[in-house]
Structures are given as structure tokens and as C-alpha cells.
Amino acid sequence: APIPSFRAILPLPDNLISQIAAGEVVERPSAVVKELLENALDAGANQITVRLEQGGIKRISITDNGRGIAPEQLPLALARHATSKITSLYDLENVATLGFRGEALASIASVSQMTFTSRTAEAPHASEIDGSTLVVTPSSGAQGSTVNVQDLYFNTPARRKFLKSDQTEYGHCAEVVRRIALSRPDVAFSLTHNGKTVDHWMVTESAKRSASILGTEFAEARLALDESAGPLRLHGFVGLPTASKARGDAQYFYVNGRFVRDKVLMHAVRAAYQDVLHGDRFPSYVLALDLDPALVDVNVHPSKIEVRFRDSRSIHQFIYHAVNRALALTSATSFGTTP
Ligand code: ADP
Ligand code: MG
């Protein structure tokens, strides 16, 4: 067809903007689970229930006991670029919450059948907002929030086609829950799939949480690590060579509580393992780097899985030495590789 010679420039309709953003923020059910879990944690919840149906494609329902949203604020919670977490560039550069972009709920609502039910401590009863009409009605329930996301991508069939089998999508969702549960042993989580409780973790300490999520194999062959240098602190567990794997699927790295996949961090750990691990094996670890938020930019990618450090060289060195020291202690005792 011939290209029209003239087309007026028009602003995009609001809902279409959200659907476009949804392509980046919620590319599959597990991304919805991640966004909703992060919201629950940002709301101060210490008990979170995740219910999935058909791998999350049919339904994702997350209930938390956090501070909730006042009824008059519910429409704003679903509005694009509306957030309670930052108000200035200064806040953005020092952000301590997991969310700050104010677009997840709007994006999810634009590609699913969503309801958000919430109750604050002050409210006499819960209120529910419908994601498509934005009508708020009285509801019932305890303090906290329940987000119900049904029929993901029902109105964007092109995206829906990219979803894999229920089982595959479920696997991604469960991995997201594990990742977050690993980083927050102070929060109880439960996960059900198609009505069956798959996992349930009570409030505990990090050693026990990681043991129950990563299994006894890891729990019995790991070293605790906790080192600080100036504004940097690295803590968590590094697996001994006997806990290494043929695939790198037990590598969990968090920066200020956020799960990340970062080349600098992964490289530093890998380098630290070089002397104790053969090239084709992958170390297992759960490590958390805490640092002044001003030293790391988390606003690199909409899903925030990537970060950028202001001084990645010093971060690399710090991590390399901390992990190396921990491993050197054992190789001196149980592996006999020191001269
Ligand atoms: P962001 O998390 O980036 O602020 P969202 O679209 O995810 O953006 O959420 C918008 C706002 O809705 C949040 O800033 C928060 O105030 C509120 N909110 C979302 N989920 C919850 C929840 N589970 N409990 C309490 N408030 C919530
Ligand atoms: Mg959010």
C-alpha cells in the first residue's frame, strides 16, 4: 500500500501509552508477580500470599498486610506516573524503595482484568477499584491490599501469543517468588498454584530461609560472609566448591535489597572462585551488597534488574576480595590447596 503523504501528529491515548509501557514492564506473568511483590514490600507488609492459576496467565492474586491505600487515593495508584515513593530528582538519586516509576499498576491494568482492594488502618472498611472503569466501591477485608490480575493480555492478543506453556510461566513466577523470599527472611510468604499450596515460608533468619529455598545441599556446604569497607557492606552465603552446579541457576545477588543480574558483580564473584572451582562449574551464592543509594543508579531499565555503579572498579575489588578471603579460609582448612 502506498505510504500516505500526510498524517497528522496526535497525542497517544492514555490507555495505549500504558499498553506500550506494559511491553517493557510486564512482559510475562512473572513480571507482574515481581511488581506486585515489590509493592507489597514497599508497603511494609510482613505477610504475603501469592495465588496463581494456570501459570499466572489466568490469574495472579497477591494479598499483603501492608499499610494499604486510602479509598480516595486508589484512582491515583492506578494512574500512570503517579507514585508515593519519590517527589524529586534528589529522592530518585537516593531511592530506598523497590518501586519509584509509578507505572506498574497502570501498565498491568491496561493489559488485564484487574481489581485492587485495599484497607488502611484508619479506614472503617476496605475499598475496591476496578482497573478498567476506575470506579471505587466499598468492599470487605483486613488491613492491607489484594491485587487480583485476571486474563493477562486478554486485550493484546499479539502479546499473549508470546506466552509459553502454563508450566513454563509458572516456573518463572515461582523463581521470582523465591528470589524475593530469599532477600526478605523477615517476611512470611506463601505460594499456591491452581489451588494447591506449593511453598510456605515463615518469618525466620537468613540462614534458615536460604537453606529452605536452596536446599540442604547448599545449606551444608556454604560459608557465611559479612564484610564492610567504608560505605559498602557485603553479606550472605557463598557455596563451597561441593555446592557448585553445572548451571548457574543458584546465583542470587542483591543490591540494596533488589535482585540484580550485573556483569561487574558476577565477574567479581567468578574471579574470586577461580582457584577453587573448575572452569565448567558455577558457584552457588546468595549475596547482598548494601551501599549508599547515591552510589548506584537503579534507573537503568524499566524492570530494574540492571544497575549502574558510580565506581564499578572499587565495587569489583571489594567483592572479589571479600569472597576470595572467605573461600581462602576454607581452602586452607578443608581443601589443602594452600602451600
Ligand atoms: P511505584 O511502585 O513505582 O510507586 P506502582 O504503579 O507499582 O508504582 O504503584 C503506585 C502506587 O500505589 C505506589 O506508589 C503506592 O503508593 C501504591 N501501592 C501499590 N501497591 C500497593 C500495596 N500493595 N500496598 C500499598 N500501596 C500500594
Ligand atoms: Mg511498584
UniProtKB/TrEMBL annotation:
<comment type="similarity">
    <text>Belongs to the DNA mismatch repair MutL/HexB family.</text>
</comment>
<dbReference type="GO" id="GO:0006298">
    <property type="term" value="P:mismatch repair"/>
</dbReference>
<dbReference type="GO" id="GO:0005524">
    <property type="term" value="F:ATP binding"/>
</dbReference>
<dbReference type="GO" id="GO:0032300">
    <property type="term" value="C:mismatch repair complex"/>
</dbReference>
<feature type="domain" description="DNA mismatch repair protein S5">
    <location>
        <begin position="210"/>
        <end position="328"/>
    </location>
</feature>
<dbReference type="GO" id="GO:0140664">
    <property type="term" value="F:ATP-dependent DNA damage sensor activity"/>
</dbReference>
<keyword id="KW-0234">DNA repair</keyword>
<dbReference type="GO" id="GO:0030983">
    <property type="term" value="F:mismatched DNA binding"/>
</dbReference>
<comment type="function">
    <text>This protein is involved in the repair of mismatches in DNA. It is required for dam-dependent methyl-directed DNA mismatch repair. May act as a 'molecular matchmaker', a protein that promotes the formation of a stable complex between two or more DNA-binding proteins in an ATP-dependent manner without itself being part of a final effector complex.</text>
</comment>
<keyword id="KW-0227">DNA damage</keyword>
<dbReference type="GO" id="GO:0016887">
    <property type="term" value="F:ATP hydrolysis activity"/>
</dbReference>
<protein>
    <recommendedName>
        <fullName>DNA mismatch repair protein MutL</fullName>
    </recommendedName>
</protein>
